[in-house]
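Shipment paperwork, digital attachment
Item: protein structure file
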Amino acid sequence: MLELSYTSHSMAPFARDLGYEGEPFRWDEDRRAQLRAELDAWYALAYGLSRDELRYVLDPKDVMGEDYPSETFRVLKNNEIKKHGEYRTQRLVLAAYDKLVSEGMRPRVEGYR
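Attachment content:
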């Protein structure tokens, strides 16, 4: 969270409040995408989402089929497909989710909806 937030000297007081005395973090789009994906995966597990539920949140059509009328992140998905040739956020979040699960983290709030 600190690395995503502390990208300017104007945020130095915030960084110090968190015990960090170093320089602001360099803005790196790929690194930021990875960090956001890791946070999204952690929150999905913390809120008790299964992998399929997370897939549904990221792209309902991925779970329900192309004819499914609902969408969640259409603009993000379309922009990423244009820029990266894939829905990168979905891939990164699911990979981060799988990694956390492989390391022993499980959904924490079973049945919470």
